[in-house]
Design goal:
By secondary structure, this protein is mainly beta. It has one helix and six strands, in the order αββββββ. The chain has two domains: 1-45, no CATH class; 46-110, Maltose phosphorylase, domain 3, CATH 2.60.420. 14% of the residues lie in helices and 37% in strands.
C-alpha cells in the first residue's frame, strides 16, 4: 500500500501473517475509508464524547486479543485535552484518565 490506507476493505482470503490485499480497481484512498479506522476504534472502545457538557463516556470497551494496553493521547473533550488509557484486567477492559492536560474532565464508565 506504500504506507497509504486502502480505499476499500474487502473479503479476499489471506494466510496468517500476510498483509491485507489491495482491492484490484480501487483508488487510494477514499475519505470514508480513511475515516473508518477511527470509527472502528471508537466503536470497539465504546467512546462517546459530549463536547457541550465536556464529558466523556466509555461503554463496555473491548480490545483485540494481543493488545493489553492502549493510550489515546491529547484527546479533545470540549475545550479540554486528556490522555485516556485502556487496560486489559483479566477478561475485562478498564478505562482511566492517564493525564489531564487542561483541567478536569468527567469520565463515565459503563460496563
Amino acid at each position: 500500500f506504500n504506507m497509504r490506507l486502502p480505499e476499500l476493505f474487502c473479503g479476499f482470503t489471506r494466510a496468517p501473517g500476510e498483509a491485507p490485499i489491495a482491492y484490484p480497481v480501487a483508488c487510494l484512498p477514499q475519505a470514508w475509508s480513511a475515516g473508518s479506522t477511527f470509527m472502528l476504534m471508537q466503536a470497539c472502545l465504546g467512546l462517546e464524547i459530549d463536547g457541550w457538557k465536556g464529558e466523556l463516556r466509555v461503554t463496555r470497551p473491548r480490545m483485540p486479543i494481543g493488545i493489553d494496553t492502549l493510550t489515546l493521547r491529547h484527546l479533545s473533550v470540549g475545550n479540554k485535552t486528556i490522555d485516556l488509557t485502556f487496560q486489559r484486567v483479566g477478561d475485562r477492559v478498564v478505562a482511566f484518565l492517564a493525564d489531564r492536560h487542561e483541567g478536569l474532565v468527567p469520565l463515565i464508565v459503563r460496563t
